[in-house]
Amino acid sequence: MARETRTLVVSPYLTGRRPGEAEALSRSSEARFEEAIGLAKAIDLAVVGAEIAKLSQIRPATYIGKGKVEALAERVKETEAGLVMMDCALSPVQQRNLEKAFAAKVIDRTGLILEIFGRRARTKEGALQVELAHLAYQKSRLVRSWTHLERQRGGFGFLGGPGETQIESDRRLIQERMIRIERDLEGVKKTRGLHRASRREVPYPVVALVGYTNAGKSTLFNRLTRADVTAKDMLFATLDPTMRALKLPHGGAAILSDTVGFISDLPTMLISAFRATLEEVLAADVILHVRDIAHADSAAQSADVAAILAELGVSEDETEAIEVWNKLDQLDADQRTVLKAHRNGEASDGPIAVSALTGEGIDALLAAIEARLAKDRDLVDLDIDGADGQGLHWLYENTEVMAREAGEDGRVHLKLRVAPDKLARLARRFPGRLAV
Questions:
Q1: N or C: which end of the chain has fewer CB within 10 A?
Q2: 114, 43 in Cβ contact below 8 A?
Q3: Is residue 152 pLDDT above 60, yes or no?
Q4: What residue spans define the domains of the chain?
């Protein structure tokens, strides 16, 4: 797909709430519609038309009703669209029937997200995960993917039996490729496991950024780490996790991980395929849940993120999670007043309001991260000879130096924050000199 592909975006939404969706978090059709257009633009499709199709029920043959199919066929002709993007999950039969009716290629939400993931993947693991998910999707649609499926492949010349059908051959080839990819992924996962093990030996705590796609995670990542990863006003601008060192206010360090953005109605096959990509979240000491607080559907987006985290086995209630309300710069004075009223006062466990773009609130966020990481850590006092450079270096590498004061006698008084697993090592390294 390229920029020249003229695309008609159709958003067929059932009237009323979706099953299991709470009224307060019901997503507006308009917001979902804008998101669908954003998905199409994320891979530079030329959107020549877009419309919402409200449905009372889903039709088994075409998803939408006969009258709407005919009207959209006319719209495809008028706009000369070569592609129709349906913001829903289509069955292979529905997709085939719509393509016949529109005389144009049809792609559903899952197919488009796979196209986006394919464009964004940069690491070897990301590319393999994308291909695996794409093959699983393609395998389920072989019934419509070829025009020659009914042909039989014979033996040699006119001899031999009828052989296997093209569809059986294609399905077998896809299955073989999927098995090879899964084998390759096991190797990549082992490598990632070794990297995680080496980090644990350092060890630095891991802080993972999660949030709805386009919530501003990559911009916040750049602000916190002074890095320069891709940060665009575009859905799924980041796909592979990126990790950088994060300096904390009192000299401590952590590893900050930026992950792929979440999105509503993400098919289960994609959640499974990208589980390994989100392993940094599973291993994180602190999770920063970044919300676009200026977005009309911010609460619903937050619920979508929580639901996907739950599917991954992560509960924000049981994890050291900090909710980050981003994009303060997009709020006017009245909206800021309302926002302040809804915040949990100045409570340490309340949401932190920031603007990743301007830097507003970043110091408070860093302090909150440091406080969460320090929850189970001990504060100790230690006196050390100022000439013991090796000892000082060890302390800066293995503890958080909260305060340092040089005495007239040449000794240095330090206030340290120490992780539980480091306390015994500290006591052995400086016997008889700790004051807890």
A1: C
A2: no
A3: no
A4: 6-112, 121-185, 204-373, 378-435
Between 230 and 167, whose confidence is greater?
Answer: 167
Lowest-pLDDT range, 51-60, 147-156, 275-284, 297-306? 147-156
User: Which residue is it, tokens 């981003």?
Assistant: 326
Write the CATH number of the domain with boundaries 204-373: 3.40.50.300
For position 198, what pLDDT does the model report?
60
pLDDT over threshold 90, residue 98: yes
The 3-state secondary structure of the chain reads CCCCCEEEEEEEEECCCCCCCCHHHCCCHHHHHHHHHHHHHCCCCEEEEEEEEEECCCECCCECCHHHHHHHHHHHHHHCCCEEEECCCCCHHHHHHHHHHHCCEEEEHHHHHHHHHHHHCCCHHHHHHHHHHHHHHHHHCHHHHCCCCCCECCCCCCCCCCCCEHHHHHHHHHHHHHHHHHHHHHHHHHHHHHHHHHHHHCCCCEEEEEEECCCCHHHHHHHHHCCCCCCCCCCCCCCCCEEEEEECCCCCEEEEEECCCECCCCCHHHHHHCCCCCHHHHCCCEEEEEEECCCCCHHHHHHHHHHHHHHCCCCCCCCCEEEEEECHHHCCHHHHHHHHHHCCCCCCCCCEECCCCCCCCHHHHHHHHHHHHCCCCEEEEEEEECCCHHHHHHHHHHCEEEEEEECCCCEEEEEEEECHHHHHHHHHHCCCCEEC
Those residues whose C-beta lies under 8 Å from the C-beta of residue 201, and which sit 6 or more positions away, are none
Identical fold between 204-373 and 378-435: no
pLDDT of 147 over the 50 cut = no
| Assigned CATH topology for domain 6-112 | Rossmann fold (3.40.50)
The pTM assigned to this predicted structure is 0.70
Asked: is 378-435 a CATH 3.30.160.70 domain? The reply is: no
Cα–Cα dist 236/137, whole Å: 19
* Range in 59-63, 99-103, 198-202, 316-320 with the lowest mean pLDDT: 198-202
228 vs 74: which has the higher pLDDT: 74
Q: Report whether pLDDT(377) > 70.
A: yes
pLDDT of residue 220: 93
> CB burial class (10 A; 0-12, 13-18, 19+) of residue 291?
buried
Looking at the chain, the whole-number percentage of residues with pLDDT higher than 90 is: 23
